[in-house]
Amino acid sequence: MEGVIVRPETPADYDAVREVVNSAFPNDDEDIAALIEALRAEPDYKPELSLVAELGGAVVGHIIFTDARIETATGVVPAKSLGPLAVHPDCQGRGVGTQLGTEGLEACRRLGHRIAVVIGHSTYYPRFGFQRGRPLGIEMSLGRLEQSRMIVELVPGALDGVRGTVYFSPVFGEE
Description:
Blueprint: E1 4-8, H1 14-24, H2 32-40, E2 50-55, E3 58-72, E4 75-87, H3 96-110, E5 115-119, E6 131-132, E7 138-140, E8 149-153, E9 164-167
Parallel strand pairs: 4-5, 7-9
Antiparallel strand pairs: 1-2, 2-3, 3-4, 3-9, 5-8, 6-8
Helix pairs in contact: 1-2
């Protein structure tokens, strides 16, 4: 969408992010805005990986990446967890989410992260290179539907030899 600027969020954006998230997920059983606030309170929160999309000075989208880990037979492999990703309904379907996802994953790469995971729509996240984890030997501690549990290499070869289970921030809870 022309004119959209993606940038790290600041505390001044928190109320606008809450409004965007509540409008993007009006019928969700989970309080997504409260989840984001809890993720910000985590010791590993990185403001440079919590991004807003701004259009004409107004926040119209948000994405956050938090720490996750892949427990393997030989140790722990760090990963970043994408989500939630929210776009105001007035801007949905216009590329804002794609811009947030693309720029967010690039920010992860710039900061040296090698792997990202997501629990999300199986038809949306493949545009960023995500693929189902299970065929790659990656299980996930969360996510009801197997096809929603996805992973992507941010660096070629990052998943070579990695087999195990992804665990997310305790804020997400375990199923």
